Amino acid sequence: MPVITDEARVWADREFPDFDYPVTRIDIARFARATGETNPVHYDPAVARQAGYEDVVAPTMFPYAIRMHAATLGADPNPDGSPASDVPPLPTTRAMAGETSITFGVPIVAGDTVFVNRRIADMYEKEGRSGALVFVTMEFTFTNQRGEDVAREQFTRIYR
Amino acid sequence: MTSAGSEIPVRRFEPSAVDLFMFSAASWLLHRIHYDRPFTTTHDGHPELLIHGPLQGVYLVQTIEAWLDGRGRIDSISYRHLAPAYLGDVLECGGEVTNDDDSIVELHVFTRKEDGTVTTTGKAGVRWQT
Fold first, then answer.
1. Which domains does chain B have, with CATH numbers?
2. What is the distance between the alpha carbons of residues B54 and A81, in angstroms, rounded to a whole number?
């Protein structure tokens, strides 16, 4: 019996609201600190300008924090804390990170506003050792206020 | 140094409980398996708090960027998780150049535990600064 129901298919076809993230120096410093970055280009605007940036520059993986905010600010999380807005209606109880694929565009600096567009690109199930596994692939595009590509990401989460 | 087969120096990461929480907080990642130990061990059946998959992605990026040392930047990276990594694990990240024929140099990258268990494997493309 398939785990992915028609209800889940309808869910996957819905439009997600756009999300805007105005990036501050504090956002960048916090993410840099949380990931152990020591390069002053993430903390000191003067150093960042000397390095050719308009302001402090975000660490490469900062788009991840942007998309998590998009997933969790708009709706209450699930009881396990995972983002409810990203989770299809499935009879599964546990979620795991699967494969991630990111292409980077122009860097993000403080003062930018990053727009996130997301959609479900794929959803399928496989029989695993301990029951059905459902793979849900989300696609994110990140652009800045000038319409430039900041990043694109495809992310697969596995539900069991 | 950048020809196929050359190695990316291994970097070690040993995130503490505070490091895991900081990453959850900075990313607004609310999943309890990264800060709520009783939930993690009872509900999900893990022996310890989990080191975030995306944090391992950050470690891979940092390992590549340390090797690049400003000579280029990462164009793309993709990775997948093969085994869970837990609080207390020492993670080693490294890789090697797999193709240097094109304008984008291709790398294989990995995260492994000290006992050799590979937790994350992936590939990346880097572009030299001109």
1. 7-14+52-128 (3.10.129.10)
2. 16
CA distance A9 to A36: 40
Chain A nearest-CA distance from B94, in A, is 17
Q: Is any Cβ of chain B less than 8 angstroms from the Cβ of A76?
A: no
Q: What is the pTM of this model?
A: 0.93
Tell me the backbone φ, ψ of residue A86, rounded to 5 degrees.
-95, -5
As a whole number of angstroms, the distance between CA A47 and CA A53 comes to: 9
Check CB contact under 8 Å for B62 and A64. no
- Phi (first) and psi of residue A69, to 5 degrees: -60, -40
- Banded pLDDT at B1 (limits 50, 70, 90): low
Q: Is B116 exposed, middle or buried (0-12, 13-18, 19+ CB in 10 A)?
A: exposed
Q: Which of B30, B44, B55 sits opposite A77 (nearest CB)?
A: B30
**A100 and B75: CB-CB below 8 Å?**
no
Residue in B41, B77, B79 to test binding to A, most A beta-carbons within 10 Å: B77
B100: which 2 tokens? 């240097």
> Do B25 and B88 form a contact (C-beta atoms < 8 A)?
no
Domain layout of chain A by residue ranges: 6-159
ipTM: 0.94
B29 chain-A contacts, CB cut-off 8 A = 68, 72
pLDDT bracket for residue A86 (50, 70, 90): confident
More confident residue, B48 or A9: B48
Check the CA dihedral B50-A58-A61-B59 and report its sign.
Answer: negative
How many Cα atoms occupy the beta-carbon half-sphere of A123 within 13 Å?
21
CATH 3.30.559.30 assigned to domain A6-159? The reply is no
CA B39 to chain centre: 25
